[in-house]
Amino acid sequence: MAYLELAPAITAIRSRPEEFEFSNNTLHHLNSRHRFRFLGEDDVRIEAACDCALLKASPEQSKAFYTAYSEWHSTYWRPLQINREFASHFAPPALWRRVAVWLLRRLLSWTPSEKTSALQAPLIPPQPIV
Q1: I need a labelling partner for 5 at 20 to 30 A (CA). Which of 38, 78, 106, 124 fits?
Q2: 26 has which bridge partners?
Q3: pTM over 0.85
């Protein structure tokens, strides 16, 4: 049986990790649009719009690719995700939130002026009619 040669993918994930992403339990190669779904350590399903998906990868190369993927995930992808999440904690808040905070601060720091105080002065109680 003819197998798909995974050596170029293994080399790419090791030397150019930025060309790959991981989502929905699938490894995506951005440049080629190939997707790799690992069904086990020695079994990988290739999804592609071209004929590359017609051949199956050999169990030996699938295992080598899985090892390279595992290394990529722990040394490149996971730290990248953590750094993105950390950076998102310091992103400027949305416009509506900035406006709400500004308005709240304005209301909390507001003190009534003398003019307003005069309007709120207690009224003279009504006098009984004799």
Answers
A1: 78
A2: 23
A3: no
